[in-house]
């Protein structure tokens, strides 16, 4: 594995206040405990930055906008309109495979999902419709939650041996979408977020 924060898309204009849309587990969701258990054998590896359980997240969209921009009229209109937009879409679940070693992080990855595709595409359409198309970064490659980010280069085999006995499938129930302000910390190889506003998805099922 090689360092996550060497990626070009981590070179934000500043390290804090970057606006994202996340799907978040509730604090008492089984997935939070599951990720804590799976992180335990990795804690002794300083080359890895464990994502704090209170900041577990599934990114739906990152923007090149920052929290200071929220006073702009287009943001005021968007935040008002998103409740009605999200209310049209059903809640859904993402089934995630056991966390696996990727080039720069350890990620639990989900398969194709109509719910996921609907929310990501619809959110992007809403942002474009509100004149924010230039703020969009590339969408996530698919649904995933990161267990740990690589801080310093480490042999995959060492990580695989530590992870092998504990990696398990999990599931995230997505019933809300959150606009969050994100801070990155390359020194600890982790991200923290603060919820600015969240909106429930409207219907059950899907």
Distance between the termini: 36 Å
> Main beta sheet, described?
4 strands, antiparallel
Please give the count of helices: 4
Radius of gyration: 17 Å
Approximately how much helix is present in the residues? 10-25%
Order of helices and strands: EHEEHEEEHEHEEE
Low-confidence stretches: none
Structural class: alpha+beta
Oligomeric assembly = single chain
- How does the overall form come out from the CA principal axes? globular
Strand order of the largest sheet: 3-1-9-10
The overall strand count is 10
pLDDT average, as an integer?
96
The percent range for strand residues is 25-35%
Structural summary, described in words:
- The protein has 206 residues and is α+β, with helices and mostly antiparallel strands.
- The chain has helices spanning 30-39, 73-86, 114-129, 156-163, and strands spanning 18-23, 48-50, 58-66, 92-96, 100-101, 105-109, 144-150, 170-174, 176-185, 190-200.
- The strands form three sheets. The protein has a four-stranded antiparallel sheet with strand order 3-1-9-10.
- Helix 2 packs antiparallel against helix 3.
- The chain is globular, with a radius of gyration of 17 Å.
- It starts with 17 loop residues before the first strand and ends in a 6-residue tail after the last strand.
Q: What is the element layout, followed by pairings?
A:
Elements: E1 18-23, H1 30-39, E2 48-50, E3 58-66, H2 73-86, E4 92-96, E5 100-101, E6 105-109, H3 114-129, E7 144-150, H4 156-163, E8 170-174, E9 176-185, E10 190-200
Antiparallel strand pairs: 1-3, 1-9, 2-7, 4-8, 5-6, 6-7, 9-10
Helix pairs in contact: 2-3
């Amino acid at each position: 594995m090689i360092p996550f924060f060497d990626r070009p898309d981590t070179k934000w204009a500043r390290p804090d206040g970057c606006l994202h849309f996340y799907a978040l587990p509730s604090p008492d969701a089984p997935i939070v405990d599951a990720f804590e258990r799976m992180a335990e054998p990795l804690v002794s590896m300083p080359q890895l930055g464990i994502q704090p359980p209170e900041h577990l997240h599934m990114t739906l969209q990152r923007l090149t906008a920052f929290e200071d921009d929220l006073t702009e009229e287009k943001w005021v209109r968007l935040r008002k309109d998103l409740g009605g937009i999200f209310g049209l879409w059903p809640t859904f679940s993402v089934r995630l495979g056991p966390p696996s070693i990727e080039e720069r992080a350890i990620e639990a990855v989900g398969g194709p999902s109509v719910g996921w595709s609907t929310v990501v595409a619809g959110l992007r359409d809403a942002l474009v419709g509100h004149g924010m198309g230039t703020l969009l970064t590339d969408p996530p490659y698919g649904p995933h939650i990161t267990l740990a980010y690589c801080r310093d280069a480490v042999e995959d085999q060492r990580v695989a041996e530590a992870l092998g006995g504990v990696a398990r499938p999990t599931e995230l129930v997505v019933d809300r979408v959150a606009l969050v302000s994100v801070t990155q910390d390359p020194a600890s190889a982790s991200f923290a977020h603060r919820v600015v506003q969240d909106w429930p998805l409207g219907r059950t099922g899907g």
